[in-house]
Design brief:
Elements lengths: L2 H11 L3 H36 L7 H20 L1
Length: about 80
């Protein structure tokens, strides 16, 4: 294990449960942020192909509906 990882673990071991839960939430946030960034980059990478294939642009209402459906699906998966 790298030395700085060990130092971090030692610091985590000193935290009370409530603060440890906050750290865990923050780590989850960072991981999710990284996944979203990667997904966004993949989406941008295929945009030219979609445009050249003659795909039609979605309206904001359609985009919001897709986002809402994806969030509901993700929420359902996390509750299972």
């Amino acid at each position: 294990m790298r030395a700085n990882a060990q130092v971090l673990i030692e610091k985590l071991e000193q935290l009370p449960p409530q603060q440890l839960a906050e750290v865990e939430d923050f780590v989850d946030f960072l991981a999710d942020k990284s996944r979203r960034s990667a997904a966004w980059q993949r989406l941008l990478a295929i945009a030219p192909s979609l445009e050249s294939a003659g795909g039609t642009a979605m309206s904001m209402e359609e985009i919001n509906a897709e986002i809402k459906a994806a969030r509901a699906e993700r929420h359902t998966k996390t509750q299972a």
